[in-house]
Design goal:
Oligomer: single chain
Number of strands: 0
Number of helices: 13
Low-confidence stretches: none
Mean pLDDT: 83
Largest sheet: none
Shape: globular
Radius of gyration: 19 Å
Length: 247
C-alpha cells in the first residue's frame, strides 16, 4: 500500500507529458461549455419543454454528458498498461518491490484524479449561475458525486481493456465498445414485458442509477453498484497482470 501514492503521482505526471491529455481536456471543455450554453438558452425560453434546473439537466440529462464519458474514459486509460507492455517497462515494474495490487490501484487512482481535474473548470458554471439567480447546491453536489462515480466505472473498464493488449488504439476501441454495450443495457427495458426482467435491467442500468444524483438524492444502492463494478474491474485487471508474469 505504501507505494500507491508514488505510483499514482508518477502516472499523473506522465499524463501532462503527452498531448493526449490536453486534447482530452480541451474536448471536455468544449462539450461541457456547449451543453451549458444550450441548456441556459433552452431553459430561458418561455416555450422550452425542459424541466429542472440547468445543472440538473447538465448532469446526465443530455446525450453530450454520456458521450464524453464513454469517449474520453478509454482514451485516458488506453496507455496505462498497453504502452508499458509494448515498451517492456511493465516487466521492469513488475520485478520491482511493488505488488500487482499497488500497480493497478495506483494507475487507476491517477486516471481517476486526472478525470476529476478535467471537470474542475465546470465549477465556473456554478459561479456564473449564482450571479444571476439562487441555485440549489444539493443537486450540484450530488451531480458531481454521480459524475465522478460513473467516470470511475468507465475508467476501470478502460484500465481492464488496456491490460489485455499491447496496442493503445486497440485498448481504446475495446474500452469504447464495452462501455457502449453496458450503457445500452438501459434501453433493453423497452423490449421487455416481464416485471422481473425489467427490474434486473433497472438494477444494472447506468441511467437508472444516475437519475437520483441529478435530483439531489444520494441513493446508497447506486453508490454500492458503482463501487462494486469498479472493484470487480480492478480485480479482473489484477488477475490479467498476474497472468502476464507467467507468459
Amino acid at each position: 500500500m505504501k507505494f500507491i501514492p508514488n505510483l499514482m503521482a508518477k502516472e499523473l505526471r506522465s499524463y501532462f507529458y503527452s498531448p493526449v491529455a490536453y486534447v482530452v481536456i480541451a474536448g471536455s471543455l468544449f462539450i461541457n461549455g456547449w451543453t451549458f450554453w444550450i441548456m441556459a438558452n433552452a431553459l430561458n425560453t418561455p416555450t422550452a419543454q425542459v424541466t429542472g434546473s440547468i445543472m440538473q439537466v447538465f448532469f446526465g440529462g443530455t446525450f453530450f454528458f454520456w458521450f464524453q464519458m464513454i469517449l474520453f474514459a478509454p482514451v485516458i486509460t488506453m496507455r496505462l498498461f498497453s504502452e508499458e507492455a509494448k515498451t517492456g517497462t511493465l516487466e521492469v515494474l513488475m520485478t520491482s518491490p511493488v505488488t500487482d495490487f499497488e500497480v493497478v490501484v495506483g494507475k487507476f487512482l491517477a486516471a481517476w484524479t486526472f478525470y476529476i481535474v478535467m471537470w474542475i473548470p465546470t465549477f465556473l458554471y456554478i459561479v456564473i449561475l449564482k450571479k444571476h439567480a439562487a441555485i440549489d447546491m444539493g443537486p450540484v453536489f450530488t451531480g458531481y458525486m454521480g459524475t465522478f462515480l460513473v467516470g470511475g466505472f468507465f475508467l476501470s473498464i478502460g484500465l481492464l481493456m488496456s491490460s489485455l493488449t499491447k496496442n493503445q488504439i486497440t485498448a481504446a476501441v475495446m474500452g469504447f465498445v464495452v462501455s457502449i454495450g453496458i450503457f445500452s443495457v438501459a434501453f433493453l427495458a423497452f423490449f421487455m414485458n416481464g416485471a422481473i426482467a425489467r427490474d434486473v435491467i433497472a438494477y444494472v442500468s447506468l441511467l437508472e442509477h444516475f437519475e437520483d444524483f441529478g435530483k439531489g438524492l444520494i441513493d446508497t444502492r447506486a453508490i454500492i453498484f458503482y463501487g462494486t463494478m469498479i472493484t470487480l474491474n480492478l480485480f479482473l485487471t489484477i488477475r490479467v497482470v498476474e497472468a502476464r508474469k507467467w507468459k
